[in-house]
Amino acid sequence: MVYKLDQRITPLSRIFLVLIFFILYAPIFFLVFYSFNSGGTMYNFKSFTLDWYRELFQDSRLLIIVLNTLVIALVSSLFATIIGTLGALGIHSIRKRQTKNTLLSLNNVLIVSPDVIIGASFLILFTMAGIKLGMYSVLLSHIAFSIPIVVLMVLPKLSEMSPTLIDAARDLGASQWNVLTKVVLPFITPGIFAGFFMALTYSLDDFAVTFFVTGNGFTTLSVEIYSLARRGISLNVNALSALLFLFTLVLVVVYYFISQRNRPGRWGVKK
Amino acid sequence: MNNKVTRNLYLFPYALWIVLFVVAPLLLVLYYSFFDIEGHFSLVNYKTFFTPVYLKMTLSSFWYAFLITVISLIIAYPTAYLLTKTIHKQLWLLLIIVPSWINLLLKAYAFLGIFGTKGIANSFLEAVGIGAKQILFTDFSFVFVSVYIFIPFMILPIFNALNELNPTLLDAANDLGASKWITFRRVIFPLTIDGVKAGCQVVFIPALSLFMLTRLIAGNRVITLGTAIEQQFLVTQDWGMGSTIAVFLILIMFLIISLTGNRKRGV
């Protein structure tokens, strides 16, 4: 059956698909390719060199920025996952439909809001609250915009769970705490992991919000790339992008396996 | 029941988050929009917004967002359709999504090299015989790069909608004598309209507001609502005017969400 469907792809559409994939990947490989150019420009490939990578690894300022970015991403995702999971548990236990829908709409506000709005409004918020712009304001904003995505990843798992499971645990004498830690949490663990992972990628990818709420002293990788790119082309950025591309591929593979565990048959080949 | 106590315990940090980081920021933006640059309460920002300069900017921002959305849709729909027909479709879909995980700024940066005066695009144009052109810092490059960035986000919801389509419906249409075009227009497209709407929503709203692209690629030739907000907040330091534009962007956002319906299936 599957084979028959595939027969319907005409050569012309095959060319179209190949073209789309080419366009999507060409700029990325273009960047990676020129990161090996000793010429120092993104045209006119002179000869192969690893100088840009060497320079990258000797740039201690940049390494600190990378470290900052990773710490912010990990810590913010951790907090967002805890608060978001608790929130999902709370939303799930609400019976009144209207309250539930209101909470869900409020939850989605930050997901659909453009980054500029989030950044600008958080900037006002932090200034009003007297929080100094810098690492903590960035961390707080990253936690804030990651929470709704965790909720959205955990909630479907909770609604998948049959309520009889909890009744059974109660009948067998489990305390409330036991029900949570021995029944509910293990069941929704894939959702929690997916949420944590999404929060991680959101935080790593974010530029606009950080750009607004970061002060002079603190920079993340995206903001640094922006200021480097505004100054023009420097092949350090190419080397950096090559490394980030590798890192992204690793993340994708991890995500692929998580989602495969999460929804068997949705990803990958189904027999 | 002590169930309620636990539930409130769960909900407390989450509710605190909603109040502090969802409700409060929106209200603060609204509040700030009523203050002029000296900090006096006034409606001057709204008056300024309705002057031709700002209305023109809003319209052109809309026009660009519309162009970007339409072009993305025209490219994404057939791509999604063909992807559903491949054998390892989930794997191909994943490969479409991977570029969207690469930092957006790096992709914009790549186009600085590709579209530059001596870049690969110009060498190609010269080889073809058209001759080198100024590509970077034009509206063309802005629309091209935006479409490039948004295509995966458009493909994903359309792919999901097409994937859920019951194939027997197509057989039925075929049996009843519908041509391919009629089948598409009367059966496939109406049934996948939710995916199209979701895709348009995820493309149109960011297209109104991405300021880094206009800065890097369009060289300030294109000013979107997002660029204007960033300009007012971080360059001019006129938070009142910035907030006013933000208020309108938020209103537009809610309008679009209500037009494109609730994304129940998710992206």
In short:
The complex is a heterodimer of chains A (271) and B (267). With 271 residues, chain A is mainly alpha-helical.
Count helical runs of chain A. 12
Q: How many separate structural domains of chain A?
A: 1
Instruction: Evaluate the radius of gyration of chain B.
Output: 23 Å
- Please summarize the sheet with the most strands of chain A: none
Spatial shape of chain A: globular
Q: Please trace the helix and strand order of chain B, writing H or E for each element.
A: HHHHHHHHHHHHH
Distance between the termini of chain A: 12 Å
- Strand share of the residues of chain A? under 5%
Return the average pLDDT of chain A rounded to an integer: 86
Rg of chain A (C-alpha, Å)? 23 Å
Instruction: Examine the coordinates and then state which fold CATH places here, giving the name of the CATH topology of the largest domain in chain B.
Output: MetI-like fold
CATH class value of chain A: Mainly Alpha
Report helical residue fraction of chain B. Answer: over 70%
Helix/strand structural class of chain B: mainly alpha
CATH superfamily of chain A: MetI-like
The count of helical stretches of chain B stands at 13
List the helices and strands and how they pair.
The complex is a heterodimer of chains A (271) and B (267).
Chain A: H1 2-7, H2 11-34, H3 51-58, H4 60-93, H5 97-112, H6 115-129, H7 135-160, H8 163-171, H9 176-205, H10 208-213, H11 221-230, H12 235-262
Helix pairs in contact in A: 2-12, 3-12, 4-7, 4-9, 5-7, 7-9, 8-9, 9-12
Chain B: H1 3-32, H2 44-49, H3 52-83, H4 89-101, H5 104-114, H6 120-128, H7 139-164, H8 167-175, H9 180-191, H10 193-209, H11 211-216, H12 225-235, H13 239-260
Helix pairs in contact in B: 1-13, 3-7, 3-10, 4-7, 7-10, 8-9, 10-13, 12-13
